[in-house]
Amino acid sequence: VPLTTIIRLNKSVYDISFNYVKLEDPLTEIAKKYAYYEAETKTLEIELNQDIINSILKDQLAQMELGLPEKLTIQEVALVTADKRIYINAKYGAINLPISAELILAYDNTGITVSVDNFNLGKKKAPGFVAKQIPADQLKYSFKYADLGLPDVFAIKDIKFSTGNLNVFVELKVDKIKEL
After folding, report:
1. Can you point out the beta strands (E) in the chain?
2. What phi and psi, each to the nearest 5 degrees, are found at residue 48?
3. Residue range 32-61: mean pLDDT, rounded
4. Which residues lie closer than 8 Å to 59 by C-beta, 6 or more apart?
5. Least confident residue range of 33-37, 74-78, 149-153, 155-159
């Protein structure tokens, strides 16, 4: 790696500041404060702003063992919804490593899979030898709705990213709700 690249990276970090939002019970609080129902289409819209998303992300990362190499530490992580990227300010020893990755969401009637791809190092595409060092498989997270205790009464129809927000559109299965 050229010395100029190392110097440039060491002087750069992403500005990923946000206002931390403490959620005692995230699912309940999101359902009460950030959900909107459209009766005509039986669609529930859940709108999450970046502060809420990044607060949940921060709390979850604090509890996870990422299995990173000894000298690699993560300083900050945040999602920027406008460009669907996760930004990570990391350090390898004393050298700053600003890394970003495209966020990929896949969903079906049983759950959601969150993964990352297309890594950048600073403002440029990460060289192959750097991208290969990132444990992308370990950064893939899948969960089933049933594992969260959610009954089979909905189907995600769409997830939209915009500046500062993530909107999830959920169709309610009225017949299944009546059966409860």
Report:
1. 35-38, 43-49, 72-80, 85-92, 95-107, 111-121, 124-125, 141-144, 154-162, 165-172
2. -115, 130
3. 90
4. none
5. 149-153
Does the pLDDT at position 161 exceed 70?
A: yes
Asked if 96 and 131 count as a contact pair (C-beta separation under 8 A), the reply is no
Residues 6+ apart with CB under 8 A from 33: none
Distance from first CA to last CA of the chain, Å, rounded?
Answer: 61
Residues 6+ apart with CB under 8 A from 73: 90, 91
Size of the chain in residues: 180
In this predicted model, which residue has the larger pLDDT, 101 or 27?
Answer: 101
| 3-class secondary structure, 127 | coil
pTM of the model: 0.81
CA gap 18, 38 in Å, rounded: 30
Q: Specify the higher pLDDT residue, 7 or 43.
A: 43
**Of 144, 133, 53, nearest to 97 (Cα)?**
133
Could you give the CA distance from residue 81 to residue 63 in angstroms, rounded to a whole number?
Answer: 23
Neighbour tally for 51: CB within 10 Å: 14
> Three-class SS of residue 150?
coil
DSSP conformation class of 68: -
